[in-house]
Amino acid sequence: MDERAAKIAAMANSVVYDSEATRDYIDGAPHVKHASLRALYGSLVVGIYDRSLKHTATSEVPQVLDLGAGEGSATLPFLELGARVTAVDVSESMLAALKEKCTAYAGMLEAECRDVFDMLHHMRDTGRKFDVVVANSFLHHVPDYLALTRDAVAVLSPHGQFFSFQEPLWHDSLGPFARRFSNVAYLAWRVFKGDKLGGFKRRRRRSRGLYLEDCPEDNAEYHAVREGIDQNAMMDLFKESGLDYQMVRYFSTQSRLFQFIGSSLGMKNTFAIISGNTGKSGA
Ligand SMILES: C[S@@+](CC[C@H](N)C(=O)[O-])C[C@H]1O[C@@H](n2cnc3c(N)ncnc32)[C@H](O)[C@@H]1O
Fold this sequence. Notes:
This protein has helices spanning 3-16, 19-28, 30-33, 35-54, 75-81, 92-101, 116-126, 145-153, 176-190, 196-207, 216-220, 231-240, 256-264; strands spanning 63-67, 84-89, 109-113, 130-136, 156-168, 244-250, 270-276. By secondary structure, it is an alpha/beta fold. The protein has a single domain, classed as Rossmann fold (3-Layer(aba) Sandwich). The longest helix has 20 residues, at 35-54. It is globular and about 55 Å long. The relative contact order is 0.15. The mean pLDDT is 93. The structure holds S-adenosylmethionine (SAM). S-adenosylmethionine (SAM) is lined by residues 10, 13, 17, 29, 32, 68-70, 73-74, 88-91, 94, 115-116, 136-138, 141-142.
């Protein structure tokens, strides 16, 4: 995957997440919208933070790097627990919303409007390390998410943890029923939103495997509109790096009704993964 694709996707994100999209973000972000997913995220964060504390000197606090931090839904829980957070995002407008959301913790927050690859390379070159690197609903925005994960692992402290939440499972790994159900659930929400004709045309084009460089919608949510994130490749990467990993699979969709039905039926289309020297491994 080349540098050009990474730049096009980053630019598409800074264009797509303008101030209007930032206001609308919650409705299209199941992990921010649904209390059950916020609760799942919260319980994973508490476990990660507690493990981090065990390896942090009593005079210090865990250092967290939030990649593609957006409007702060991943940053805030870490700040509330007492961590110091560096939040990175390519969208000015998302970071403005993040700063507003996290005002009470301004002294513990550093917000950088920058491409994550630039930021990670800068951290690596200056030797800065983090106890937690979080990528929440973010890997699917990056064409080469495996390269990004490798760069993120390189800035972890010896007991550091990489934490990714809210990523679409590799579409081919879903059973036919879960795949069809996820599509119907998405459409049941999408049909009440604007630009129906444009959305329909893009979907029809993508179903033929055609993606356009100059279409921000094709490039912002890069892998969500393509094949999803390859969770097996992620696990292999952690194994090769000698790290433990723990995967959690769950159901997520925008519509409240379908979120209820899908999770009640025990369907899975989304995953979280925690990796580090945690002493726990499993999918
Ligand atoms: C779906 S949002 C996730 C926001 C937040 N982490 C959350 O979970 O709500 C993805 C964010 O990644 C940012 N982003 C995408 N590509 C980026 C890149 N290459 N560098 C920095 N930020 C990027 C977008 O601007 C957007 O705010």
